[in-house]
Amino acid sequence: MSGRDAGSNWPVAAVPSAYLTPGPGSFTEFLARAEPHLLPGNRMQTIADQTPHGTTIVALTCADGVVLAGDRRATMGNLIAQRDIEKVFVADSHSAIGIAGTAGLAIEMVRLFKLELEHYEKIEGVRLSLDGKANRLSSMIRGNLGAAMQGLAVVPRFAGFDIDRLPAGEAGRIFSYDLTGGRYEEHDFYAIGSGSMFARSALKKRFERGFALPAAVRAAVEALYDAADDDSATGGPDLTRKIYPVVIAVTDSGARRLSDAEVGAVSEEVVAGRMVNPGG
Amino acid sequence: MTMPVYASPEQFMRDRSDYARKGIGRGRSVVVTTYSGGVLFVAENHSPTLHKVSEIYDRIGLAAVGRYNEFENLRTAGIRLADVRGYSYDRRDVTARWLANAYAQTLGSIFSEHQKPYEVELCVAEVARSVGEPVPAPGETRLGAPGQRDQLYRISYDGSIVEETRYIVMGGVTEPVSSAMEIKFVTGWDLASALTAAVSSLGAGGEGAPRTLESSQLEVAVLERTVPDRTFRRLERSTLDELLAPVAGDAAAADTAQQAPETPAGGGAGGADLPPESDR
Fold it and tell me: Deepest in the core among A156, B51, B114, B235, taking most CB within 10 A?
């Protein structure tokens, strides 16, 4: 009787029956059920060396929330694959995600993650909590474990403004992940990627609790400069081509990507400072 | 043993139509209309959480009347369908025409094949990025190229689909509401006058008409033309009270109503009927 299940007399252009089946508000779970071929990680690959890799991402909390910044270089072996790749993205109204690892998979993961948040919000009518978002990302990384074992790892960094937490100085939160999807909350500041060791050392010296937003942005750009200084796979601010780091500030009023003009001004100050004192 | 009573196919279909129509007629009405800044949804809805109007995608919204569980099911399916298509192709490839077709096929199938037809009526609306470009040729009443116009599709319980260019009234007793809208509608009106007109038109229907609807009895949302990505926004009670403030709103509506016959596209046969952006 039910044409929906038989499939034979259900018109091709109509909504497929899987779409009409009730279920939770998770887009990833829905894809796994209805369109599994669209999920990242369900493919075989052994091409780790020939794929572009992303590099240094830094995150730090400040009085207004949290700042996430990433350099623009992608490398492929000893070559610079791209000078102006973007590795930091606004995930939804109050969170941002940065990626290090195999660029192709990472960017697809970001796309899926953004949609996961948006889909939930549209279906359920409310946004996920910040911890809920962080946990969703965790399970997505776990789904990529097979590819990670073949050398195609994706390690994101997630940061957001927790609107359920007051005051604003406490609301900026940073989450880091490992390959198995383990989720760790970081405090104050953190860096990932090939230049993370240098960036983290730089932030250790510069970071102050309760930074104002501009000071936090400055510290992030300084840390990226230090990472680029010592790590060949991280790109510094490129004043000649006007390619600057991507900086996202997540505050009470939402996640905002700083304009090139704003980051350019900070980058010029940083470079000018290094002209006098190369070590910062 | 009882024998099934013979009913002619015409009688059979008529019974189903009557059944669905009665179900839809029991509810409260929804008005969807275009205005200079986008598309406006106004629903009489006493529940603040069980929505009749919802976001589907970047530039697409859905209004529904009838049985809640049935249109909620279709709404979820629509969001899934749109998200999957946007994820596997591109966000720009999700269009209202395509979604409206999918809904029409679904409702058509359910109407002819299932025991019970869905008692719902849907409006799928898409807001154009810009209207008024290119400039219409003399005698051409439609503003904007196809795909650059605001689109309103009305899909009935039996899968029939109609494209409207000015406004749609669905659910409850539509007759008095649509005649009130017919009188009040003005090409390219602003948000306040469109909202005031829609609310007073809704008040022309229902028990004890004419009624004055309070902002607490309304669910209002817009698709905002100028927003680059997700255009759907719900209007809160405070915003509604401001927009519905009697003096300014009524005067403006009366003013523009008098000028209506003089505007070239005022006949209503045309497309989105909106002035170029620069006029605002």
Answer: A156
Q: Using the CB atoms, write b or e for B64-99: b if 16+ within 10 Å.
A: bbbbeebbbbbbbbbbbbbbbbbbeeebeebbbebb
Please name the residues in contact with B82: beta carbons below 8 A apart, sequence gap of 6 or more: B56, B57, B60, B94, B99
**3-state class (DSSP) for residue A259:** coil
Exposure string over A132-142, b if 16+ CB within 10 A, otherwise e: ebbebbbebbe
Query: What's the ipTM?
Result: 0.76
Residues 20-39 on A with a CB inside 8 Å of B are 20, 22, 27, 30-31, 34-35, 38
**Do the Cβ atoms of A137 and A177 come closer than 8 Å?**
yes
Radius of gyration of chain A, Cα coordinates, nearest whole angstrom: 20
Helix (H) or strand (E) holding B92: none
Of A11, A30, A111, the CB nearest to B80: A30
Q: Count interface pairs A-B at CB distance under 8 A.
A: 69
User: Per-block average pLDDT, block size 10, for chain B (280 residues)?
Assistant: 78 90 91 93 92 95 95 95 93 92 94 90 91 48 57 94 92 92 90 94 86 92 91 93 70 45 37 37
pLDDT averaged per 10 residues in sequence order, chain A, 280 residues: 50 81 85 83 52 79 94 87 90 91 83 93 92 92 76 81 83 90 91 90 93 95 94 91 95 93 96 91
Question: Which residue of the set A21, A28, A46, A55 is catalytic?
Answer: A55
So what's the pLDDT on residue A54?
61
Q: Is A55 a catalytic residue?
A: yes
Unique residue bearing structure tokens 């383990």: A182
b/e sequence B42-62, b meaning 16+ C-beta within 10 Å: bbbbeeeeebbbbbbbbbbbb
Q: Which of B178, B148, B144, B157 is nearest to B32 (CA)?
A: B178
Residue A62 CA, distance from chain mean position:
18
Q: Burial level of A158, CB count in 10 A (0-12/13-18/19+)?
A: buried
Q: How far apart are CA A86 and CA A178, in angstroms?
A: 21
Residue A182: CB atoms within 10 Å: 11
> Cβ contact (<8 Å) for B87 and A115?
yes
Cβ atoms of residues A133 and A160 within 8 Å: yes
- Cβ contacts of residue A91 below 8 Å, gap of 6+? A97, A110, A113, A114, A117, A133, A158, A160, A255
Instruction: Provide the β-strand partners of residue A76.
Output: A79
Residues of chain A with C-beta less than 8 angstroms from the C-beta of B102: 13-15
**Residue in B with minimal Cα distance to A12:** B105
Q: Which amino acid is at B186?
A: V
**Which DSSP letter does residue B275 get?**
-
Report the half-sphere exposure of B262 (CA within 13 A, side-chain side).
5
Check CB contact under 8 Å for A122 and B102: no
